[in-house]
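Hey Z.,

So I finally got round to the coenzyme A thing we talked about over coffee. Here's the setup:
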Amino acid sequence: MRILLLCHSFNSLSQRLFAALKARGHQLSVELDISDSVTEEACALFQPDVLIAPFLKRRIPESVWRSVLCLVVHPGPPGDRGPAALDWAVLEQTPQWGVTVLQANADFDAGPVWAHARFDMRPASKGSLYRSEVTEAALVAVLRAVQRLGDNDPPEAPAPTTVAVADAGSVGCTWRPAMPQTARRIDWLNHTTAEILARLRGADGQPGVQDELFGLPCHLFDAHPATGTALQALAGTAVGAVVAQRDGALLRRTVDGGVWIGQVRLARACGDESAFKLPATLAFAPEAATLPVWSVPLEREDDEWAELRYWEQGPAGARVGCLSFDFYNGAMSTEQCERLLAALKQAKQRDTRVLLLLGGRDFFSNGIHLNCIEAAAHRPDSSAADESWRNINAMNDVAQELISTTDRITVAVLRGNAGAGGVFLALAADEVWAHQGAVLNPHYRNMGNLYGSEYWTYLLPRRLGPERARELMRQRLPLLAADAQRMGLLDRCLDTSPAALERDVIPDALALALTYNLPERILQKQQVRAADEAIRPLADYRKEELSRMHRNFYGFDPSYHVARYHFVHKLPHAWTPRHLAVHRP
Ligand code: COA
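And the result:
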């Protein structure tokens, strides 16, 4: 089938559908939703059998849905309608939710239902649910809808107030409007921690909850309950007060506990240019400087929040170390890289045979922290170029530490997606394992033709050879884990869900640690590394990559700075990149 994806941006869900449909032999092209006339033109050029809209913020024009079958992916069960479906479900802590694929018509989310899928909700942010459960369910429903289309088995048109559901009878429609900030508002003096978390989670990644910190208007994101030592230390502090900091987050007292707030977007009205998300302690740097740091050890119970955690499994002599680094949105600032490097060095002191690098729950890593870099442009003592330089060097230090870990086997476990430098950081490990739904973007050029570093010029050709490495970087397309495994970029693609991956890899890691010939394998690894070093030292790869990056950051061509500004400020797309819109000559 010829399938045109129409989306507001080529986001994780759109990428997953794109890669999955392509893998099933369909012909895919993408158009970003820029204007009605651009969509009309895309249909005229591509002549699709079906247009699929995985992520739209506006309606599909009538001229288009009247001439082409248009299927919209709605993140709600059949009968649910409206633009804030998931926000309401998270806020109201609905136990089950779903995804519906319905046909676009004159009514919003009320066309014939082609397919739907359900899932259990989890106490997590809207963004996390979207990237995991919603994406999995959307894939099931879209594939089912495409199958029905292939079988020429369309659903019946619905009556005006009901939705015809092919395999679930008819259900009534519920229109839920966009969620106003008044519905999200937090009353810090009265709401419980659970109520506050539901509000913050229902608004994360966008639009956040409008609030105030230190008397300044801002939006709050990235909430975690205070537990363990933080909860004990909160006793005696004033309700509503911001009392401490940890890993860039601020701890605010609630009536029955406390909430860590990891990310903040200051209001433009504050006269601050940085009206985009930043780690809370960076957004409120002078205020945070007066707060105590309530740090926790790397090895601790898993219910106490902090970005980094280390634990071990298995018998003495065959132990497996697990290091997780759950950085918001997978973005790794200079300071986060430095903390990760210190944690990695600490983990290497331990007597383990296998070290698992578990990244974060939602993303393994997305490379350098573009928001923190953008913020540096507004600081008198720094610049975006200087911060980019510090950040890429800090990333490289982590990658180098990993490459030169030759006394045990390292495994990068992709629980979530990985992009740009985050993919190459994973390749710095000996093995890369992922769940079948992980999407990789192993390229840098989408960010203003960035050359990239993280030793990719060493790591990628050693897996793919020089020709295929160049081709992969040139294509700039998302890759499914299974495709990545087929081409040799990954070692294992586990048929498991993102939620179960962490649990499922442990037996395999323990088995690896117990392998009878592991010492020989480690010896062989040391020999290969020494031989590679003799042919061309790691320092040389780094120097060459960084000389190109220096030009990206400090040179005459401003493409990287422009692309980063657009990305961080979420400016609407003005055109669809040619590598996606293959229908354009
Ligand atoms: N720095 C800062 N924020 C980042 C980031 C980065 N490197 N990568 C992703 N994010 C943020 C996005 O701004 C978005 O923020 P939001 O929560 O405010 O909406 C969030 O992470 C999710 O990103 P999104 O683009 O919606 O996720 P996706 O899964 O659809 O797409 C990528 C993933 C990797 C393709 C895309 O995020 C991307 O291109 N990131 C930039 C990668 C990069 O160029 N890194 C620098 C070079 S190493």
